[in-house]
Amino acid sequence: MSDYILQMKNISKSFPGVKALDHVCLNVRPGTVHALMGENGAGKSTLMKCLFGIYKKDEGQVIFNDEEVDIKDTNDALHRGIAMVHQELQPIPDRSIAENIFCGRYPMKNIGPVQIVDHARMYKETEELLKEVNLDFNPKVKLGTLSVSQMQSVEIAKAVSVNAKIVIMDEPTSSLTENEVEGLFDIINKLRSKGVSIIYISHKMEEILKISDEVTIMRDGTYVGTWPANELTTDLIIQRMVGRELTNRFPPRFNEPGEVVLKVENFTSIDPRSFRDVTFELKKGEILGIGGLVGAQRTELMEGLFGVRHIEKGTVTYKGETIKIHHPRDAIKKGIALLTEDRRATGIFGVLSISDNVGVASLDKYIDYGVVLNNKKLESLVKDNIDKMSIKTPSTKTQIQSLSGGNQQKVIIARWLANDPEILILDEPTRGIDVGAKYEIYTIIADLAKQGKSIIMISSEMPELIGMSDRIMVMCEGRVTGFVDSKTTTQEEIMSLATKYM
Amino acid sequence: MEFNKKKVTDFLSNNAIVILLVLLVLFVGFTRKGFFSGPNYSNIITNVTPRFIIALGVSGCLITKGTDLSAGRMVGFGGVIACTLLQRPDYTAKFFENLPQMPLVVVLLIVMLITAFFGLLNGCVVAYLKVPPFLATLGMQTIVYGINLVYSGADPIGGLRSDFTGVATNAIFTVGKFSFKWLFLIAIAAGLIFWFLYNKTRYGKYMYAIGGNENAAEVSGVNVNRSKLKIYTLAGLMYGLAGFLLAAKSGGASVNLGLGYELEAIAACTIGGVSTNGGVGKVSGILLGVLVFELLKTSMQYLRIDTSYQFIVQGIVIIVAVALDIRKYTAKK
Fold first, then answer.
1. Across the interface, do B205 and A359 touch by the CB < 8 Å criterion?
2. Is the whole model's pTM more than 0.90, yes or no?
């Protein structure tokens, strides 16, 4: 019996033109939480996909339970006791919780010669599993009615149901609020005490240091090292991840908030469960942070302002003039831009080139003779932006989907800057982006504010919210619960405002 | 070295159908008499032109992740209208007995306006009623067929004016045994206009954006509904043109004109690299696709394969083409 439940030795994996993993090692002890860290593109997900049977490793050994294994596919992995909670959950919203958990391996019973699904047993087992993850739901409830964090708990219950010895969690908290993260940690602790090992991938330092026993760090597809979590600090992790020292997580800001440019009053959604009576002001050159838990209707509020959602009442005054916004086009014409929360769903045009992705919102400016697009002018705009924001891409013709998350985000920021907006609404601008790229995006935001642009930034990361905004508006259950000055506020103060009505 | 091998296999699998069909054409060409000859080229191109025009129309729908199953029936209706308006004055069984002689261009415009109107209806149903394009245009297919039956009384229309049929038969110039017809000029013009639209205008950029990610397009300020309306209307316009030319080529029309042409057009687009996943497709690819599909049919004729079997082969090619296209996108995950 060795000290480890899982040993991955000298794993290498190449894709056309890239060596994604280069002799990487990972040793996980039984009953521990093992954090796997690295910038985006460091190879964490690739390594986990090799373990879970989604990719085939080119070379190296996997020793699981003292036995060398060759995992053929995900089914094989599950049978051996390796489960994965995916970064993007893939539920079947219109089917019950029980069916989602047992999908593909329903308990069966025989009626004469015919095999049918044993529903009674499935519901009973689901009920027990849900108790394990602190969920109190009827197993027959449609999965789609649950919140994101509850769905994630269901995913974990699924992992428990296959008696997993190792559960891989790929960024499990990326869409959870701090409260829900606590709930997740309770479940993780429960699993750990039962001897289950967890491989935990996340970008969030505070979480890692809090929950994990050991930390393995990767950089550019290579193994940097493994350390006990209690010997590490945020700065040490970042240093080892990026291979350089990052003294400041946020760039210095020199913006000076001026006169009020935007006034929103009594803004109320047509959906009674969404935002209500929201009133706030935004000044020229100001960065206004919006804090709150997931479900506080921050995104919905901004989409309402941008004309994606409908409002029941409320007025918007822009530079002293009352304006009506029924459609994103109206907002864009007034000089408002919205960087949406879900980059893949509403941000990028995956199969289109960088040029097309940048140009799409401002084509009206590049028209000659009423119809002909001036592709040359458009191209020079794109090239300027690539230089200015140091977007890493082989060419302007490259499909945006082949870029990293951080570079994709910069391309979309470039799309909006091409319109020269007065107000930029940024919804979770650094979600799923690695540390180095985050800093670059912060720098871009700080620059824009200094140029006199007004910025609204929704963020679920408390340090980011406090570190990057001038003022913070906190919301809870669709209502504004307070404004705080980010120079004097604390995480605790914001948290108590964010949970005021709960 | 290994990298190059990968590149070669990628190229082969991405262009499998085109490569196979080129091999087939070469085989037929060198084993059968008359395949590589001026008249046959001329004949193939004559068949290609209306199909190319239909494929151009459908391509916009496909690029925006839609489709248009009413294409063939609209072509048929367009052809029938054109024939009823362009019969010889001395023809005994005239459809409209006292119809004055109308200039060709006027009739062409009438035909195109009528089919464009049905295209506009398609667009409205798809864009505003949010009916899935597959079902919306399937319904329109039946409606247009019914209207055509009512209009023509299911009688074939013949006795066409020679200036009308001349559009498809008269040569502008002749090189050896290859004659360059008016028809070709119209197809070239249509191709150029579409190339311009797709590459040099907002219309094209918005079309690709909608196909690439409709939600993102909406948030970027693209008027998605209006763009779709334009795309389906333009498609209708092209079916009218194609119907007009097809009727001129056939020297007459009946309600069955254009039957099944929508499938051929969709297949040609897919073979030519228009992705059913949306956001991808070039005019040059569409031309290649139509050409390849037509060559397949001609090759089978030269090989004396029974027409019944030809249908089976065509169906298989369509399914394989789409399967290969989808494979490109699933492999990336």
1. yes
2. no
